[in-house]
Design brief:
This protein has one domain: 2,3-Dihydroxybiphenyl 1,2-Dioxygenase, domain 1 (Roll). The radius of gyration is 16 Å and the shape is globular. 16% of the residues lie in helices and 40% in strands. It is of the alpha/beta class. Strands 1-4-3-2 form a four-stranded mixed beta sheet, with helices on one face.
């Protein structure tokens, strides 16, 4: 019997400043702050969440080298990419790359890249909007 993975439930972000991270993801990307267990913090969106671990005291068990700024995340939106860029600009978040065509798990999409407060690379993509084909 082989194992078949259905979906991602959560991932962990190691953060320098819990409040700054929560403010960024909730204000800029509309995620919902959550507190669970014995005061653990997370950001919920769709059927997934980011559990947040403080860099100075990550919860166990944790990655071998839990460090802020080591994540590279792709998030999917149905919002037009132009609206994403406008929201980023309104929040003072610099766009590093994009909008550009890319290929995701389900095919062609349009993406924009920026950094969160810990310098993680965040890609927000839309499958409904597609720029002309190009190697991604």
């Amino acid at each position: 019997m082989s194992v078949k993975i259905e979906r991602l439930d959560h991932m962990v972000l190691t953060v320098r400043d819990m409040d700054a991270t929560i403010a960024f993801y909730s204000n800029v990307l509309g995620m919902q702050p959550v507190t669970f267990g014995k005061g653990m913090r997370a950001l919920s969106f769709g059927q997934q969440k980011f559990n947040l671990h403080p860099a100075d005291a990550p919860y166990k068990p944790h990655a071998d080298k839990p460090l802020p700024g080591t994540a590279d995340i792709c998030l999917i939106t149905k919002s037009p990419i132009a609206d994403v860029v406008a929201a980023l600009q309104s929040a003072g978040v610099a766009v590093e790359v994009g909008p550009v065509p890319r290929y995701g798990a389900l095919g062609r999409m349009t993406s924009v890249y920026f950094r969160d407060p810990d310098d993680n690379l965040v890609e927000v993509s839309n499958y409904e909007e597609q720029l002309p084909s190009r190697t991604a």
